[in-house]
Design brief:
The structure holds two protein chains of two kinds. Chain A folds into three domains: 81 residues, Butyryl-Coa Dehydrogenase, subunit A, domain 1 (Orthogonal Bundle); 91 residues, Beta Barrel (Butyryl-CoA Dehydrogenase, subunit A, domain 2); 144 residues, Up-down Bundle (Butyryl-CoA Dehydrogenase, subunit A, domain 3). Chain A is built from 13 helices and nine strands. In chain A, strand 8 and strand 9 form a beta hairpin. Chain A is globular. Chain B has three domains: 77 residues, no CATH class; 110 residues, Butyryl-CoA Dehydrogenase, subunit A, domain 2, CATH 2.40.110; 141 residues, Up-down Bundle (Butyryl-CoA Dehydrogenase, subunit A, domain 3), CATH 1.20.140. Chain B is 48% helix and 15% strand. In chain B, the strands form three sheets. Chain B has a four-stranded mixed beta sheet. A four-stranded antiparallel beta sheet of chain B has the order 2-3-7-6, with no helix packed on it. Chain B has a two-stranded antiparallel sheet with strand order 9-10. Chain B is globular. The chains are: A alpha+beta, B alpha+beta. The interface between A and B is large, with 48 and 57 residues. Bound molecules: flavin-adenine dinucleotide. The site of flavin-adenine dinucleotide has 21 residues of chain B, from strand 1, strand 3, helix 10 and helix 11.
C-alpha cells in the first residue's frame, strides 16, 4: 500500500509549478485574462517542451506514455496557477484518440498532438446541456452538420474530437471548410470557449469511438476535479495570506476568531479532497470497477467545494474581494467552469447514485 | 501509487484470514455445554495474542504480543477480523488512553501492575479530566491534590466522567503545584474509585441513559507513587493520551459503514408509497454525503501511507475529528428524514419499552453524534487548532491572557 505520488510525479508538479511561476506570474495572468484571445502561445510552447502536451500519449507516438494520474497532477498545478492554456481540451482529445483510434488514426494524429504542434480539443455539448455520450444527437457520418457548444480553446485548436449519435466519436480538423467558430461569452477567461457550427464538414469516425467516449468522459471529470482541487488550494492560501496582512481594529484580521473559523472551514473544504482526486485518477488505469462512479463523485464533490471556497474567499477579502481587480475573481470563474463543464454536480450525483444501483 | 498490499502482505492476509476462519466462533464440543459469548471472546483473544494479531504494541511481559510497528499489518488484521465479526481488542478508555500513556511515561511497577488486567478487561478505568469550570480550557482545572505523608489527598469535582459508575480506577488531572503556572501545576494521578472519599452521581444524558457522571472528591486518597510522570508534568503526560483519542474518533471506516447503513435504511423505508431510495432528493443527499465519505476514506489512506513510511500527512491530521463529526451530523440528519413520523419517538431508553428498536437506534445516533462532536475537544476547538497550528494564524488573544487556575 503506497497511496502517495511518486517522486517523478512530485517532480513534474514542481517543474510545472516553477515554469508557471516564471512564465505566468499573476500580472501576466491578468493581461491574458483581460486580453483578446485568453491565450499565451509562448506558454503553450514551454508546456509542450516540458512534455505536458504528450504526457499520456504512448511513447510509440512520441508521448511520455504516462497515466491519467500524471495528467491529473498536471491539472492540479494548472488549476493552482489558473493557467490559461488549451491543456484540458488537448489532453482529452489525445486520450480519446489513443483509446479509440485505429492504428492508422493514431499514427496520423498522435505524434503532432504529442509535440504540441497540433492542438486538440473536444466538442461535446449539445443544446439543453447534453454533455453525455448517451445524449449526443449529432449524426455520425463522413461529413457532419450541426452545432456543438462550449468547446474549450476551439479557435486555438487544429483538430477536435466530436461527440456523435449513439455515443460515437469523430475527428474534425478545425480549419477545414464547413467549420465556423464563434466565441462564447464565458466567465472563465483563462479557458475561452467557442460555439462551433459544422456545415457538411469532413469528419473521420474513430474506429472504437464508443468505448473511447466513455473513457473521455471519465478522464474529463477527473481533470475538472484535479483542476478544482488546485484552484481551491490556491484560494485558501490567498485568503490566509490576506488574513495575516490586512489590519482592522488595530490588528490583522486573522486575529478574529470568526475569520479563523471561516478559514478553518475553507481548509476543511480543500485538504480532504486531495486523496479523492488522486484515487479518481488512479482508478482510471487501475481500478476499472470503480472508475465510472468515482469520476462522477470526485467531479461533483470537489468542484462543488471549489465553488464554495471561492465564495468564501471573496467574503474573506471584503470589498476588495468583490472587485475585478482582486485576483480572487479569476479563480472564482475557474470554479464556475470546473463546476458546470461536462455536467453539474447534481447531474453527476444522480449518475453516481444510478451506477451504485441504489 | 500502488493500492495493492503486495504479495508478502497478501500472504499475511491469507494467514490471518485462515486463523479467523478456524478460530471464530469457538465451537463447543458436542455434548458439552455451550460456551458463553464472553468466554469465547476471551479465548479467541488469547489465541490471537499468541499469533501476534492483537495488542501488538504491548510487550509480552504485560500481556501483549510485542510486534514491530507495522501499520499495514495492523490494518489487514482489522479488516480480516471485522470481515468475520471476530472480537478485536477491548476498546475501553483504559486500553485506548491509559495503556499507551503508561507504556510511554509510566514507571516499571505501574506497567507491571496495570497494563495486563486493563487490556483483558479485568480492570476498568474512567477519565477524570473535565470539571464544572474547566472544559475546553482544561488546563484551568482546580481539583487539588496535596501530598500528606505517603498519600495524595484529593479534593474537588470532576464532571462528564464516562463510565465512572462502573470503573475500578480513574486516571485524572489534578492541581498539585498551586504556585506554578497554569500548565505546570498539574499532575497525572491514578486513583482507586472504591473508597469513601469518592462520591459518583449519575448524570442523565439527553438520550435518556446515564453513561456519564459527576465525581465528587472529598479527601480521596491515593498512594504517593500512583503518579504518572513527575509532579507538574501531568499536562504533557495527558497530551499523549488525547492524541490517541483523536485518532480513534477519526476512523474513516465508521463513516463508511454509517453511509452503508443509511443506504440500507433508504432502501427499506418508504416515501410517498415508494421506496425512499427512489426519491430524487434522497438520492442527491446520499450522493452529497458520499463525496465527503470518500474524501474521508482516501484521506485515511494518505495517513496510513505516511504512518507506514514514518512521514507526516500534514494538516489533514488535525482535520479528521472535525471532518468525521460533520459527516456524522449529515448522516443522522438524513436518517431522521427517512424515519418520517417515527422521528417522533424517543431514543429508546424510557421505561415505556421500545416501539421500534431500529428507528430508535437511529434517533439515539442522531443525539450521540452531538456527544462525539463535543467530547475530546469541541468542533470550535478543533477549528482553533486547524487555524492556529495548521494555517499559522495568530493564537487566540483571550486564551493567551487567561491565567485560568
Ligand atoms: C458524551 C460525552 C462524554 C464525555 N466523557 C468525558 C470523560 O469521560 N472524561 C472527561 O474528562 N470529560 C468527558 N467529557 C467532557 C468533554 O471533554 C467536554 O464536554 C468538552 O471538552 C467541552 O467542555 P465543556 O463541556 O466545559 O464546554 P465549554 O468548554 O464550556 O464549551 C461550550 C461552548 O463554548 C465553545 N468554546 C469554548 N472555548 C472556546 C474557544 N476557545 N473558542 C471557541 N469556542 C469555544 C465550545 O466550542 C462550546 O461550543 C465528555 C463529554 C461528552 C459530551
Amino acid at each position: 500500500m503506497n497511496f502517495d505520488l511518486t517522486e517523478e510525479q512530485e517532480m513534474l508538479q514542481q517543474s510545472l509549478g516553477s515554469l508557471l511561476e516564471n512564465e505566468m506570474p499573476i500580472n501576466r495572468l491578468r493581461e491574458v485574462f483581460d486580453g483578446d484571445t485568453g491565450d499565451d502561445p509562448d506558454l503553450w510552447k514551454s508546456l509542450a517542451e516540458l512534455g505536458v502536451a504528450g504526457l499520456a500519449i504512448g511513447d510509440t507516438y512520441g508521448g511520455a506514455g504516462l497515466e491519467i494520474l500524471d495528467l491529473a497532477v498536471a491539472a492540479e498545478t494548472l488549476g493552482y496557477h489558473c493557467a490559461p492554456s488549451p491543456f484540458l481540451g488537448h489532453v482529452l482529445a489525445a486520450v480519446a484518440i489513443e483509446a479509440g483510434g485505429s492504428e492508422e488514426q493514431k499514427k496520423k494524429w498522435l505524434p503532432g498532438l504529442a509535440t504540441g504542434d497540433q492542438i486538440g480539443t473536444i466538442a461535446l455539448a449539445e443544446a439543453e446541456g447534453r454533455w453525455q455520450p448517451e445524449e449526443w444527437k449529432l449524426a455520425a457520418s463522413n461529413t457532419i452538420s450541426g452545432v456543438k457548444d462550449f468547446v474549450p480553446s476551439g479557435r486555438l485548436s487544429t483538430l477536435m474530437v466530436v461527440g456523435l449519435e449513439d455515443g460515437q466519436l469523430g475527428v474534425v480538423e478545425t480549419r477545414s471548410d464547413g467549420v465556423t467558430l464563434e466565441e462564447v461569452d464565458g466567465a472563465d477567461r483563462s479557458r475561452r470557449m467557442d460555439l462551433v457550427t459544422f456545415a457538411d464538414a469532413p469528419c473521420e469516425l474513430l474506429a472504437n469511438g464508443k468505448e473511447a467516449a466513455l473513457r473521455l468522459r471519465n478522464v474529463g471529470l477527473v481533470l475538472c476535479a484535479a483542476d478544482a482541487f488546485g484552484g481551491s488550494q490556491r484560494l485558501l492560501e490567498m485568503s490566509v495570506e490576506y488574513a495575516k496582512t490586512r489590519e482592522q481594529f488595530g490588528v490583522t484580521i486573522g486575529h478574529f476568531q470568526a475569520m479563523k473559523h471561516q478559514l478553518a472551514n475553507m481548509a476543511l473544504d480543500v485538504e480532504p479532497n486531495r486523496g479523492l482526486y488522486w484515487f479518481s485518477a488512479y482508478a482510471q488505469d487501475h481500478e476499472p470497477g470503480e472508475a465510472d462512479r468515482v469520476a462522477s463523485i470526485a467531479k461533483a464533490h470537489i468542484t462543488d467545494r471549489f465553488m464554495q471556497v471561492a465564495r468564501d474567499a471573496v467574503e474573506a477579502h471584503g470589498g476588495l474581494g468583490f472587485t475585478w481587480e482582486c485576483d480572487v475573481q479569476m479563480w472564482f470563474k475557474r470554479a464556475m467552469f470546473d463546476r458546470a463543464f461536462l455536467g453539474t454536480p447534481s447531474q453527476h450525483r444522480s449518475r453516481s447514485a444510478d451506477l451504485a444501483s441504489w | 501509487m500502488d493500492l495493492s498490499y503486495g504479495s508478502e502482505m497478501e500472504d499475511f492476509r491469507d494467514e490471518v484470514s485462515s486463523f479467523v476462519e478456524s478460530n471464530w466462533p469457538i465451537k463447543s464440543v458436542e455434548g458439552e455445554e455451550e460456551i458463553s459469548f464472553e468466554r469465547q471472546a476471551s479465548m479467541f483473544r488469547e489465541r490471537a495474542i499468541e499469533k501476534g494479531y492483537l495488542y501488538r504494541s504491548i510487550p509480552q511481559k504485560y500481556g501483549g504480543s510485542e510486534q514491530d510497528a507495522d501499520v499495514i499489518k495492523a490494518q489487514i488484521i482489522r479488516e480480516e477480523f471485522s470481515r468475520k465479526w471476530a472480537p478485536a481488542e477491548a476498546r475501553g478508555i483504559g486500553t485506548m488512553m491509559l495503556v499507551p500513556t503508561l507504556l510511554e511515561k509510566g514507571e516499571e511497577w505501574q506497567k507491571d501492575r496495570f497494563v495486563r488486567p486493563t487490556i483483558t478487561g479485568e480492570l476498568t478505568w474512567c477519565q477524570g479530566y473535565s470539571e464544572p469550570g474547566s472544559g475546553s480550557d482544561l488546563a484551568s482545572l482546580k481539583t487539588r491534590g496535596e501530598l500528606q505523608g505517603d498519600e495524595w489527598v484529593i479534593n474537588g469535582q470532576k464532571i462528564w466522567t464516562s463510565g465512572a459508575h462502573m470503573a475500578d480506577y480513574m486516571f485524572c488531572l489534578v492541581r498539585t503545584e498551586p504556585e506554578a503556572s497554569k500548565h505546570a501545576g498539574i499532575s497525572y494521578l491514578l486513583l482507586d474509585m472504591k473508597q469513601p472519599g469518592i462520591d459518583v452521581r449519575p448524570l442523565r444524558m439527553m438520550t435518556g441513559s446515564s453513561d456519564f457522571n459527576e465525581v465528587f472528591l472529598n479527601d480521596a486518597r491515593t498512594p504517593k507513587d500512583w503518579i504518572v510522570g513527575k509532579r507538574g508534568e501531568g499536562w504533557t503526560v495527558s497530551r499523549t493520551t488525547l492524541k490517541h483519542e483523536r485518532n480513534s474518533i477519526g476512523g474513516a471506516q465508521q463513516t463508511r459503514s454509517a453511509l452503508a447503513g443509511l443506504v440500507k435504511l433508504a432502501q427499506e423505508s418508504e416515501l410517498n408509497g415508494r421506496p425512499a431510495i427512489e426519491n430524487a432528493e434522497i438520492r442527491q443527499r446520499l450522493s452529497v454525503l458520499e463525496g465527503y465519505v470518500k474524501a474521508h476514506q482516501y484521506s485515511g489512506y494518505r495517513q496510513l501511507t505516511q504512518d507506514a513510511k514514518g512521514g507526516d500527512a500534514g494538516i489533514i491530521n488535525m482535520m479528521m475529528k472535525l471532518f468525521s463529526t460533520e459527516i456524522g451530523h449529515q448522516v443522522s440528519g438524513i436518517a431522521m428524514d427517512l424515519l418520517e413520523e417515527e422521528g417522533l419517538l424517543s431514543a429508546g431508553n424510557s421505561e415505556l419499552g421500545s416501539r421500534s428498536s431500529s428507528s430508535q437506534g437511529w434517533i439515539a445516533q442522531y443525539m450521540y453524534s452531538l456527544g462525539i462532536a463535543i467530547a475530546g475537544g469541541t468542533a470550535n476547538v478543533q477549528r482553533n487548532v486547524i487555524a492556529e497550528r495548521g494555517l499559522g494564524l495568530p493564537r487566540d488573544a483571550a486564551a493567551n491572557r487567561s491565567p485560568g487556575k
